[in-house]
Write a sequence for this structure.
């Protein structure tokens, strides 16, 4: 990859303060260590009912199945508002405050690359790509005990995008040291004991239960008022404290602040219209209602 290449400047200008890249074959031995961890995680069933993660195992073990021309990997990350999204005892994960990042990032990255002549594939969340692994291997941050990618300055409230390209690669960058040290705040902050250091049991994770699971878990788990997603293991992380302070001027979308009574009586049509531009649109109406009744087990708002 040419040091003079313009793509890096374009990505920075597009609002991505964290940009890294690495040659695929030079990174492959380390990559395979991560891929084997993924395989072991699937084998023990920690993906729960996220069958797409199991179906994508081969592609994660061999990224050339995703992009045959693969020569180098570019990773971008950008912080999202760190202000808590909570009212009347109901909370949403912070990443839901704003337009759907899948759409905005694909558009922004597509625009940044539109005049480039090399071949590339943009992956944001939904491709069979180990995004945190690539973010770590391109020197963007380290993978914390809560399994999230952490940057010493920006913390972990970050969206990640990966771009596979056929560009000549750059030598592996200096990797971030794991600065979690002996801290285990994320582990103890998880009310459902979903975390062990560097290992998430999805079937216990509030984020998974509220976003991905279709079944009824209300009798087994209390979700601390989270209606979609969960940030408890991030809130506990010392690397997010600074971001918390910085983000107090961010506004919260009105539709995430609706009164519980309004939500309890909301129709499916109204729900769909309300969430259509948000990543919340990925949560089915029936699951949202389930999450709501988990927050108010008696169906009545607790004072
Ligand atoms: C499936 C999924 C989930 C699942 C499972 C989460 C999980 N920990 O795996 C559920 C629904 C629970 C979930 C929740 C969340 N998710 Co999610 N999720 C994904 C997805 C689609 C795949 C993740 C995956 O492959 N998991 C499998 C496990 C085994 O992989 P892993 O934990 O990443 O571990 C790998 C490496 O990190 C590495 N590794 C980990 N630790 C160590 C340690 C050592 C020593 C080594 C060598 C390697 C290593 O090995 C593993 C195999 O490669 C990615 C997008 C993508 N395509 O990658 C987003 C992604 C990881 N999610 C994201 C977000 C924002 C969240 C939430 C914060 C949302 C929320 N607020 O509710 C929570 C966080 C919960 C948590 N603590 O992880 C972001 C993470 C941003 C960041 N800073 O890291 C991603 C990258 C999406 C994006 N493009 O921005 N998510």
């Amino acid at each position: 990859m040419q040091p003079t290449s313009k793509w890096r400047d374009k990505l920075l200008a597009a609002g991505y303060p964290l940009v890294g890249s690495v040659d695929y074959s030079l990174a492959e031995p380390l990559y395979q260590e991560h891929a084997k961890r993924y395989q072991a995680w699937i084998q023990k069933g920690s993906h729960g009912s996220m069958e797409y993660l199991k179906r994508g195992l081969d592609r994660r073990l061999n990224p050339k199945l995703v992009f045959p021309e693969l020569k180098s990997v570019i990773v971008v990350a950008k912080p999202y508002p760190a202000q808590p999204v909570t009212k009347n005892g109901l909370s949403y994960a912070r990443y839901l405050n704003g337009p759907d990042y899948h759409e905005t990032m694909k558009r922004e990255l597509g625009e940044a690359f539109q005049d480039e002549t090399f071949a590339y594939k943009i992956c944001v969340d939904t491709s069979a790509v180990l995004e945190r692994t690539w973010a770590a291997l391109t020197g963007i941050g380290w993978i914390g005990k809560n399994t999230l990618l952490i940057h010493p300055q920006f913390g972990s409230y970050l969206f990640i995008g990966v771009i596979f390209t056929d560009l000549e690669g750059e030598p592996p960058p200096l990797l971030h040291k794991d600065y979690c040290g002996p801290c285990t705040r994320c582990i103890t902050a998880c009310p459902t004991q979903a975390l062990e250091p560097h290992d998430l049991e999805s079937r216990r994770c509030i984020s998974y239960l509220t976003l991905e699971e279709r079944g009824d878990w209300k009798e087994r788990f209390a979700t601390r008022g989270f209606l979609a997603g969960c940030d408890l293991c991030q809130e506990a992380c010392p690397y997010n404290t600074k971001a918390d302070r910085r983000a107090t001027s961010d506004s919260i979308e009105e539709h995430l602040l609706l009164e519980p009574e309004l939500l309890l009586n909301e129709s499916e049509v109204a729900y769909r219209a309300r969430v259509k531009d948000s990543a919340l649109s990925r949560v089915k109406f029936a699951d949202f209602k389930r999450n709501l009744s988990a927050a108010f087990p008696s169906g009545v708002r607790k004072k």
The longest helix spans residues 24-43. The longest strand covers residues 72-79. The two ends are 60 Å apart (CA to CA). Residues 1-295 form one domain.
